[in-house]
Amino acid sequence: MPEDKPRYGIILLSLIVLVAIYLIPAPEGLSVEGKNALGIFIAAIILWTTSAIPLSVTGLFVIALLPLLNVMSSKEAFYLFGNKAVFFILGAFILAAAMMKTGVSKRVALLMLNRFDGTPRKLLFSIMLSSALLSFIMPEHAVAAMMFPVVAAIADSLDLEPLNSKYGTLLFLSMAWGTIIGGVGTLLGGARNPLAIGLLEENSGLTIGFFEWCIAIIPITFVMLGVGFTVLNVFFKIDVDNVRSARKVLERHLARMGKISVNEKKAGFVLVSTVFAWIFLGNIIGLAVIAVLSAVSLFILNVINWDDVESNVNWGIILMYGGAIAMGSALSTTGTVEWIAALALDNILLSPLIMLIIMSLIAKFLTEGISNSAAVAILLPIGFSLGDVIGINPIAMTYIVAVPAGLAFILPMGTPPNAIAYSSGYYEIKEILLPGIILNLTSWIVFILMAITYWPLVGISLT
Amino acid sequence: MNKIPMRNMKDINTVLVAFSATSIHKKLAKAALDMAEENNAKLIILSVRDKNVTQMVAKVTKDHGFLGRDVVEKLAEDIKKDRDELIEHRLARIEEEAERRGIEFETLQVKGNFNKNIIEVAEKYAVDVVLVDGTGSKMEQIERKIKVPVHLIK
Q1: How far apart are CA A27 and CA A269, in angstroms?
Q2: pLDDT tens column, A414-430
Q3: Which of A51, A288, A316, A367 is disulfide-compatible with A87, CB 3.0–4.6 A?
């Protein structure tokens, strides 16, 4: 695979902005450190939104710029790089690598799919639900990559004609949209969720437990799955009579996997134990400690070796999370975000509800064009400060930004599940623009309604 | 049947139908087959792989996610295999139909720029008419370079 070349024009632009802000005097109400932090933040936004250099390299750049421009000491900057959230993500990635390497995740997916009882609509629902449930326990990107060959084999077995078969489109979109919706349900579906908690901890000292996140968001994902399935079926009419051959494909895949191996059992055991530990012991010994212990146990049990981890995990992306957390902390400690909030809210009266609507909508559409994690890294620090002024609970603000930032349903470049589904060749982007926009809007409305009506029932206050 | 205006059209001996990587539409294929059959012409079926979808997916997955090199390469392999089969399958259907109707045909599969390849093939095979789908601007660009009618089938 060829590597992308750096986009020098954009890099130059970010540097010019950085230097210009460094040279100008600090505006009233903002310290010199705060002004320089703002310059680094704007340069990072330019680089993260355009991917002019890899996201992870921007993270590294941020870490180096913070002490260089006297925003914080190098000791503080590098200390933030080793944030708990980064180690939680590291442990969760190793756990996911073990599930992929042993094949236990694929076996679970096939067993779930094999339970559907025959009709074309039920097969679609089964794919969507299985994809979502798997995205509760491993990153949505990994689920989409794992499901793709299975769904492609099902489409082949049904002899569907690409670009003419609506059912082909339905199969792949059920997979993609299922993984995307499931990916917001827990802290394991996407690294943006623990990243958001890392930013929350640095900003306010508050945190969200594994179980608390699940309680707050999983019910919302089930409502969204219902909405997503309805949107799919309204826009694309099922054009096949039966899907009997699909069961044969699933049975063939299962037969090819053979009996469950010892390593699959070990990986499954470690996963289940880890999730229980996160739920029951997370608040006592910490999510990151459990994640790291879980990763270590996989090596002790000889389920994986370091080569497996290296080949299955893109370690570079970890650097982006470290940089984002350091950036968020710098914006908060220097008072930059408060200054931005005061500026943005000058003469504007916003209620917490209007703020919820605006922030979630911005997160939703920003994430269509840029990485989900970058959207969280950019919006959440601003969200906390705006929330401070308006009176929004930082925990609620974390959900308000992180959940919609995970829900990109339209563009292939928005998120890997969409790109993987598009690569099937069953549909063109123009065909899913309208259904994607409708699902973006309806899932956003569902999120707002659930935040207003359901969150108070589980003790999450907007204010 | 998809009727194509015949004005300004001389005798048609060779029909070129061109498909891009992401669109081998039934309607375009049918229009080309009908025209070749009606005129007893040779049909050149050109498939241009102008977009590297596999590479796009690998890039998005690699840039946005935690998946490592081996997983992304395996995914890219799965996608490439699937897309290769897809294109072969679609072209095979057109070839089968051409055979069934007794149309002389030749299939060409190339990689690169869509318009450039159409122009090159049209000149090399001295085609009398070109059928494509897509936008009007695409048709105009091709028509400016070659002196034969270009029809847009939507």
Answers
A1: 57
A2: 688 998 898 888 888 88
A3: A288
Task: Say whether pLDDT at B2 is over 50.
Answer: no
Cα dihedral angle (A5, B54, B56, B89), rounded to 10 degrees? 140
CA gyration radius for chain B? 17
Contacts of B89 in chain A (CB under 8 A): 162
pLDDT of residue B23: 65
Cα Dmax for chain B:
59
A191 and B53 in contact by Cβ < 8 A?
no
In degrees, rounded to 5, the angle at the alpha carbon of residue B49 between the alpha carbons of residues A50 and B137 is 75
State how far residue B150 is from chain A, nearest Cα, in angstroms: 23
Q: Can you say whether residue A165 is alpha, beta or left, with left for phi > 0 and alpha for psi between -120 and 50 degrees?
A: beta
* B105, burial (CB in 10 Å: exposed 0-12, middle 13-18, buried 19+): buried
- Asked whether the beta carbons of B67 and A142 are under 8 A apart, the reply is yes
Interface test with A, best of B64, B77, B87 (most A CBs within 10 A): B64
Identify the pLDDT of residue B1.
Answer: 42
- Going by C-alpha positions, the residue among A320, A421, A314, A412 that lies closest to residue A1 is A314
- The type of residue at A409 is F
pLDDT band at residue B62 under the 50/70/90 scheme: confident
- CB within 8 Å: B56 and A97: no
Selected residue of B19, B27, B66 to mutate for chain A interface (largest A Cβ count, 10 A): B66
> Which 8-state DSSP code applies to residue A25?
P
What H or E segment, with its residue span, contains residue B150? strand B150-152
Buried b (16+ CB within 10 A) or exposed e, A358-383: ebbbbbbebbbebbbbbbbbbbbbbb
Profile chain A (463 residues) by mean pLDDT over runs of 10 residues. 72 96 92 95 91 89 95 91 88 91 91 84 94 94 90 85 83 96 93 92 90 95 96 92 87 90 95 94 91 96 91 84 90 88 77 89 85 89 88 93 91 83 84 92 94 92 85
Residue A357 CA, chain-centre distance (Å), reads: 20
Q: Does residue B105 contact residue B43 with C-beta atoms inside 8 Å? A: yes
- Contact residues, chain B, for A372 at CB < 8 Å: 64
Contact residues, chain A to chain B, C-beta under 8 Å: 1-2, 4, 51, 54-55, 89, 93, 96-97, 100, 139, 141-142, 145, 148-149, 152, 156, 161-164, 191, 310-315, 317, 371-373, 412-413, 415-416, 419-420, 422-425, 428
User: Tokens for A420?
Assistant: 């993987």
Closest of A252, A307, A403 to residue A101, by C-alpha: A307
Which residue of B lies nearest to A146 if distances are taken between CA atoms? B75
Radius of gyration of chain A (CA): 22
